[in-house]
Amino acid sequence: MVLQVQTSTYEAKTQEIAKQLLAATQENRSFFSSLRDQMRWDDKLLAWAMSNPGLRVQLFRFIDTLPALHSKSEIASHLQEYLGDESVELPAALKGMLNFANPDSMPGQVAATTVGTAVETLAHKYISGENIKQVIKTVERLRKEKMAFTIDLLGEAVITEAEAQSYLERYLELMQQLVEASKNWSAIPAIDEADGETIPKVQVSVKLTAFYSQFDPLDAKGSEERVSDRIRILLRRAKELGAAVHFDMEQYAYKDITLSILKKLLLEEEFRQRTDIGMTIQAYLRDSEQDTKDLISWLKERGYPLTIRLVKGAYWDQETIKAAQKHWPQPVYNDKAATDANFEIITQLLLENHQYVYSAIGSHNVRSHSRAIAIAESLNVPRRRFELQVLYGMGDKVAKALVDRGYRVRVYCPYGELLPGMAYLIRRLLENTANSSFLRQNLENRPIEELLAPPIVKEEKNSLTPNSSLLTPNSHFLGAADTDYAEEEVRTKAAQAFQNVRQQLGKTYLPLINGEYVNTPEYVDSLNPSNFSEVIGKVGLISVEQAEQAMQAAKAAFPGWRKTPAKQRADILRKAGDLMELRRAELSAWIVLEVGKPVKEADGEVSEAIDFCRYYADEIERLDQGVNYDIPGETNRYIYQPRGIAVVISPWNFPLAIACGMTVAALVSGNCTLLKPAETSSVITAKLTEILIEAGFPKGVFQYVPGKGSQVGAYLVNHPDTHVIAFTGSQEVGCRIYAEAATLKPGQKHMKRVIAEMGGKNAIIVDESADLDQAVVGVVQSAFGYSGQKCSAASRVIVLEPIYDVFVQRLVEATKSLNIGEAELPSTQVGPVIDANARDRIREYIEKGKAEAQLALELSAPEQGYFIGPVIFSEVSPNAVISQEEIFGPVLAVIRVKDFQEALAVANGTNYALTGGLYSRTPSHIQQAQTEFEVGNLYINRNITGAIVGRQPFGGFKLSGVGSKAGGPDYLLQFLEPRAVTENIQRQGFAPIEGAD
After folding, report:
1. CA distance 825 to 221
2. Of 6, 180, 776, 969, which residue is 20 to 30 A from 881 by alpha carbon distance?
3. pLDDT score at 466
4. Cβ(947)–Cβ(967) under 8 Å?
């Protein structure tokens, strides 16, 4: 069904104005005409990108890489690598230019110069200047054309507190210089005054998140405090200077907190009467109409108008991909027509409330502007309360036509160094070359009726269901969605869960043997590592005699469990996953309090546990079908059967996810399973036990047997009735289990299967073409997330010489900006380590590091828990102790290498092969790493932790482990024995033949 946007009273007037504006902008269009070959190179690149989707992708990737390339040879070789890709059909002129044998050759240098200059020319089209002097020149030219301006500062992402402070200082300087220059500008009535009111000549546009490097909706209160302090300084100075300030809107995750902070701040006595401030609404967001209504109600209460800038929105691809990856509802409209229709609805809403709000309508679509004018003229909206906006370099002809009609036009002018501005440039190029772009359609001589038609909206599927259509066809498994802490009610629910859990602290948890909770001779306290005076729970530790009872119960239960249909076992798993989803907030709180994992990471761990239940349920149903290899006269079935009794020895660092994953894999495969958790995380495994029993696992099939590893663990590993041992932990213990399992015990009639994940010495390589904003953030997350206590954490970063010093400097500053504190606090990024033993062992490694490398950073940490502040060593030898041994703490070694070949050799130069990462925009380096980087999980241009079930099956080789990858299609096979059953179905020379009469 197609819904036509209601043709309203404004439509006839919209069409009339639009046709006049279009006529004025179309006077000399010749974009795709015979002049193509006489165009400048920058125009040619754009024209080619429009007509060739494969070239468009590779060209924009090359442009993104350009800032990192420092020589013509590098530019030439990257040009060849990107545009020489098989997927790209090259225009003849470009093909000829790229036909050089060697990047250092004269033709290579010419190609680099030609394309480099063309990209720079393109950048100058959309970026108003590289410094304040150039910007002043640009705005003076715009004022001559009777256009107002707003200035936006481009630059690197703000990932350190030093950069956030610098962002504020640069804006203060910018306003000062612009106001100084404006004293020499003569007044232009069309833009400097309206309805007897003076309008500030100088306006700047700022991004809220750039005022605090750790801005995070989860930490709404902390983010608000830090950001508001800097905004107040900015607004006070703007008032002194007589400049206006406008707040841009960024990614959807920041929208609600941005609006909340600004609403609160602008009601403060000091700022309440200010009318020289603006906010932004993005029409591509599904909830933008409601946000606009809320803002108008708030402005009525405030009593003084502010500007609302209405734009379509600039992050559509990013928002769509993020929602698909996270399994979250899609916040943006799928269809451009829906955005255009919404834009018109909000335009009307703003203009009909002109007594409360100044409207700034930002678009390059002639219809959108005409619609706004038609409404404004029909309602007699005063000139002060309405203006039109365009981006610099995007709607020049439209802007001129609007000025000629007597409207106030403001040009949004980004400025900054061209190279850091490339991300902005690519957003503009994507917009300009998209099939649905009005600018492109106008250039292509589309019929006027088509260009100016009211947007027709296809009815969209409910946005509240996650959009799985973007996932690849073979990814049938849809994982659990992590909690979106950008939503206020979710944060409230999380806080409530902590209160509920705190009321249960200190309880006693008993082992579960043969369906009964049993008393034990010994108990141990599980402590909160953020505050070791707080007891999370008392856990009963079983004796060796009780371990034997559990083993006998498992043996007794096995015959019945192995005969239970796979579908029935799978459904119990699915129920367990559903129960975890229901108790997600509480389970997260237990993880935070018992093992000191920060809130977001604890929530991700609950998702992983749920995913293991659902994924392995699907998998056993797939494997249960077996395989038919039938031939005439004979059936051949390949089937699987359970092995027997599985002993699961789980770690403390993923106390729910890994314990759950290993346990339910064994159970769903038909094995009876004994779970022995790490002592420091036994309360969470007791909570898992409650869920598995409620889900329906029969007595004796699953048993919870906390106990000392050296006694109970060793007893179960060596037991002759143990068939499978699934272990995650240290290399030392893993190797001992492997050796002991290999020894045949009296009465043992089978070989034991060992699945062991034993850690890593994980490295990230950063080459000279890397996006350093991305690399620094990724390394910090990978090294210091959960205080470096993940098997996948980065403990080495290998950096190529040309960027080594710059990288280390930004890495140190970004790490300094992290918040260290109790895991429960929403502001915390680095919590405690697990216990006193871990803390002392890590401290010893830090002392070794000081003896063999340069200390680049050592952060202090709170005293009341087991805290260690992040430590970074630079100039580390690849063979140093801290480069070779797993530390399992927040300690990072930064190693300098000459070239990519050496980087790979260093990365592969340890006994481990678990995870690794590469930050690079050089296609040949990416290709080489995929084949030569010796790791089980390789991550390119992203952080190296946080593997997702069914998406990044997890596990390594060398001394990182033995066995197949958790969360992958081979994992359950380790808990099963395959069998082949052949039956001769001939009787007296007769056999049924399919298809015969």
Report:
1. 11
2. 776
3. 56
4. yes
**Would you state the pLDDT for residue 88?**
84
Per-residue model confidence as pLDDT tens digits over 500-520? 999 999 999 999 999 999 999
Q: How far is Cα 555 from Cα 721, in angstroms, rounded to an integer?
A: 8
Nearest Cα to Cα of residue 66 among 131, 113, 103:
113
Any idea which residue has 């079983």 for tokens?
A: 542
Question: Does residue 838 sit in helix, strand or coil?
Answer: helix
Q: Please report, in angstroms and rounded to a whole number, the separation of the first and last CA atoms in the chain.
A: 50
Query: Mean pLDDT score of the chain, rounded to an integer?
Result: 93
Q: Which two tokens stand for residue 780?
A: 């910090």
Rounded distance between C-alpha atoms, residue 872 and residue 870, angstroms: 7
Tell me how far apart the alpha carbons of residues 545 and 547 are, in angstroms, rounded to a whole number. Answer: 5
Closest CA to 824 of 499, 405, 339: 499
How far apart, in whole angstroms, are the C-alpha atoms of residue 120 and residue 79? 15
Candidates 791, 824, 886, 934; catalytic one: 791
Asked if residues 296 and 352 have their Cβ atoms less than 8 Å apart, the reply is no
Residue from 369, 424, 410 nearest 142 by CA: 410
Per annotation, catalytic residue among 387, 619, 757, 824: 757
Q: Return the structure tokens found at 328.
A: 């979250």
Report helix, strand or coil for 598: coil
pLDDT of the residue at 167? 95
Token pair in block for residue 24: 């004025």
Q: What are the residues whose beta carbons fall under 8 Å from the beta carbon of 105, sequence distance 6 or more?
A: none
Rounded to 10 degrees, the C-alpha dihedral 37/42/43/47 comes to 90
Sign of the C-alpha dihedral computed for residues 195, 200, 201 and 205 taken in this order: negative
Active site residue 757: yes
0.70 cut: is pTM over it?
A: yes
Cβ contacts of 730-734, under 8 Å, gap ≥ 24:
730/758, 730/759, 730/886, 731/758, 731/759, 731/886, 731/911, 731/959, 733/709, 734/758, 734/961
From CA 219, how far away is CA 486, in angstroms rounded?
9
| DSSP string for residues in 907-938 | HT-SSEESEEEEE---HHHHHHHHHH---SEE
Query: Is 269 exposed, middle or buried (CB count within 10 Å of its CB: 0-12, 13-18, 19+)?
Result: exposed
The position carrying tokens 């007597």 is: 406
- Residue 131, phi-psi category: left (phi > 0), alpha (psi -120 to 50), beta (remainder): beta
Burial of 46 (0-12, 13-18, 19+ CB in 10 A): buried
CA dist 392 and 410 (Å) reads 9
Strand-strand pairing, 794-800 and 891-897: parallel
Give the whole-angstrom CA distance, residue 924 versus residue 374.
55
pLDDT at 433: 66
Q: Give the Cβ contact number of residue 294 at 10 Å.
A: 13
C-alpha span between 540 and 706 (Å, rounded): 7
Contact by Cβ (8 Å): 817, 161: yes
Nearest to 786 by CA among 890, 915, 859: 890
- Residue 415 tokens read as 């400025």
Phi, psi of 326 (to 5 degrees): -90, -5
Closest CA to 789 of 846, 835, 756, 851: 835
The residues of the chain scoring below 50 in pLDDT are: 1-6, 28-38, 473
Q: Which of 725, 745, 750 is nearest to 737 (CA)?
A: 725
Residue 646 has a pLDDT of 98
